[in-house]
Here is the input.
Amino acid sequence: PQKAGWLYQLYKPATPKWMIEAEKAGKKVTPAVVDATRPAGDWNHLFLRVGPDRSQVIMNGVKYFQFDKGSADWNKRVAASKFSKYPSFGKPTKGHICLQDHNDLVSFRNIKIREIPADGSVQDPSDGELALKGVPAFPNLEWEGWEPVNEETGKVVPLRPMAITHANDGSGRIFVTTQRGMIQIIDKKSPEKTKLFLDLRDKVAPWKKNNEEGLLGLAFHPDYKQNGQFFVYYSAEGTPRKSKVSRFTVSKDDPNKADPNSETTIMEIDQPYGNHNGGCIVFGPDGYLYIGLGDGGSGNDPLGNGQNLETLLGSILRIDVDKKSDGKNYAIPADNPFVDRANAKPEIYAYGLRNVWRLSFDPKTKTLYAGDVGQDLWEEVNIIKKGGNYGWSVREGTHNFGNRPETAKEKPIAPIWEYDHGVGRSITGGIVYRGQRLPELDGLYVYADYVSGKIWALEYDAESDEVVKKLRLDASTVPVMSFGTDEDGELYYTVQTVKGGEGIFRFEKK
Here is the structure.
């Protein structure tokens, strides 16, 4: 694109707020993320999202501007334009989109114009809908240690269940973490009130609306029935920001209580910002612990972590928690993909990820799925392969992002599925269903969007490496935080709520 003249005003970059704040804090930022224009000879993707109330200008995946029509900023810009003398200028009326260049030959390709309904909605890309609905799994449940209103301040305290899983110990119990720092037990035989298994609220950084910190992950050791070990991932209270992976053990006297003094820190990860902390941890069929991380946060991957193998951030890690090596409370599996690469972190299993939310293995095929939260345009479902590069931050989904050159040895792997921000804006990775109660879900990967509340199911064919079916499920009216299963493989999902009995849902036939 031209880089002068009045047309350039449309996509001329301005220093974003996050970068100004980062520079004030003395943080190193990568200048290339400000001007995302690619050099002459390369294709540039200028994305204009024009809605009834809001418009966005996005260059090569990097958001330059967002305008709320009728706002003070919008009116100021309209008034300052030389075209303001025209009554219809800057008004949300019908008009033409003009693509042009001055004095030079210019080519445009892949121009797509999609008309949307009057209400601004975008049709889900799906092959139909399953006749299933979400219902509260434990409608009368009370949560030990949680009240919906703080008695001292009078403020509402939402319940945010972040992970739901089981110990695979034959007890049938369900374990749920809350973002604020509690691990609760639900006994399916008498699900009237939870039992507080472990309270980490004095160790966990408090969740706030502008960050993504808290108690984010829980995984039970494959031999939990024998050794009583389980692992958590949480944002540690205090500064500087750190995420911790720790091991705890169950109490010797009470199977429904963890020993709060048994913590062993397995790993600490420096976090430059309060978002993109990842946090999902799962044990693989190989017995190793897999840890999903984000790129460190802020926006546009300002520190360039996504494609940098010298940092743990922007990656999925794989470690052996049953051994120790090099003075650490874990060991590196000998077959990890980057153990022999100079300067690369040997813990890394896969990289090029923006914010992994969440990870899960298909119990039958052992395939590792990951939802990766996008920035301004695309959300991803990925099949994670050893040594794989998933593109961020030179790609978002299958699309180029910014103007950083692709320098990694590994060619980026495309997601098996992506959806744009007209459909949803923050993926909640899910679970491949292998239970018995809902045969219509067998083998399907069930996932959701945190912002829109929409829930879908994908059928992935490993032989062709393609999604062969996409189905809608009943949408949630509130954010879907996470998916999980009980010992029988039956599926649950968690949502934010102020009603204790409406924090965990399951599917039933309509």
The longest strand covers residues 242-249. Residues 1-121 form one domain. The chain has two domains: 1-121, 212-485.
